[in-house]
Amino acid sequence: MTTIMKGAEVAARMREALERDLAALRRRNIEPKLAIVRVGSRPDDLAYERGALKRFEGLGIAAQVFEFPETVDQESFAAAFAGIDASPDVHGILLFRPLPKHLDEEAIKKAIDPLKDVDGMSPLSAAKVFSGAEDGFAPCTPSAVMEMLDHYDLDPAGKNVVVVGRSMVVGRPLAMLMLMRNATVTICHTKTRNMEEICKRADIVVAAAGKARMLSPAFVSEKSAVVDVGINVEDGKLCGDVDYDVVAPQVSMISPVPGGVGAVTTSVLAKHVLKAADLLNRRRTNFA
Ligand code: NAD
């Protein structure tokens, strides 16, 4: 029997810990708050924003949207972003990316206070993830994959893990998180040869290529646990990078799309905001 790894179950379990951590912060008079910074109104961003606001409202954590017109110029946007970043009431910032082409995204990524970088977008956050620093934030999606494995008691230690995709948002940080948990990690990408064979030998395969249903039964074995990060739209319907209907019966564990990793990311975002609020408060106290 294949175990279906359901995002909603992971999020429900995380909720208990989040409520406990929020209560502990409130006892220290800290009221955590997320700033969502959006330029323009791409449908994907709006969908994620709605999900995040709903999750935060459900948890009783403050979240404020800062919306900018698509035409905002670099100088005004950088100044406004710096203002949000400097606000003592804001503990975490989620910036929707990519920014419009005329804006200097790299400069904005570098400008964020690393302790407020709850979606791990800055080079410093990436370095912290790569070096295993305790106060660093990985992007929410790879962290959500780790939460999912933990929830289903799938310890990556000593396992062969294959990550398909090498982006800075998903593939690479995920490979580092797996390595930190003592997995033996292989990263596959567009130039990888014999990918089917490499994936088939793995204990855990994470698909993060952004290619609808590319992972066929040829990539898995009956012992495989398959985590699907992909979000694709095919004929108006959401689907992952895994050809779910034919792969699911052939593996030991699998996460669906929708209803898998995507349902965990906003809980991770909340977890990161609470951690940021704690770290920022300790920094303030230390320097007071
Ligand atoms: P990306 O396009 O930046 O990177 C895709 C990576 O996959 C690249 O490194 C590329 O080398 C590799 N790749 C592409 N086609 C491949 C192939 N045929 N074989 C092997 N490797 C291949 O995408 P991304 O931002 O990393 O996102 C990956 C997927 O995850 C997308 O579908 C995206 O929508 C989804 N995503 C999901 C969430 C979530 O919350 N579930 C969050 C972010 C991204």
Walk me through the structure.
The chain has 10 helices and 11 strands. The chain is of the alpha/beta class. It has 2 domains: 29-113, Leucine Dehydrogenase, chain A, domain 1 (Rossmann fold, 3-Layer(aba) Sandwich), CATH 3.40.50; 140-261, NAD(P)-binding Rossmann-like Domain (Rossmann fold, 3-Layer(aba) Sandwich). The strands form 3 sheets. A 6-stranded parallel β-sheet has the order 1-11-8-7-5-6, with helices on both faces. It has a 3-stranded parallel β-sheet with strand order 3-2-4, sandwiched between helices. A two-stranded antiparallel ribbon has the order 9-10. Strand 2, helix 2 (43-59) and strand 3 form a beta-alpha-beta unit. The longest helix is centred in the last third of the chain and has 23 residues, at 265-287. The chain is globular, with a radius of gyration of 19 Å. The structure holds nicotinamide-adenine-dinucleotide. Nicotinamide-adenine-dinucleotide (NAD) binds next to loops. Nicotinamide-adenine-dinucleotide is lined by residues 141, 164-167, 169-171, 188-190, 192, 208-211, 214, 229-232, 261-262, 265.
Task: Give a topology summary.
Blueprint: E1 3-4, H1 7-27, E2 33-39, H2 43-59, E3 62-68, H3 74-86, E4 92-95, H4 105-111, H5 123-131, H6 140-151, E5 160-164, H7 171-180, E6 184-188, H8 195-201, E7 204-207, E8 225-228, E9 232-234, E10 237-239, H9 244-247, E11 253-254, H10 265-287
Parallel strand pairs: 1-11, 2-3, 2-4, 5-6, 5-7, 7-8, 8-11
Antiparallel strand pairs: 9-10
Helix pairs in contact: 1-10, 2-10, 6-7, 6-10
Bound molecules: nicotinamide-adenine-dinucleotide (NAD).
Nicotinamide-adenine-dinucleotide binds at residues 141, 164-167, 169-171, 188-190, 192, 208-211, 214, 229-232, 261-262, 265.
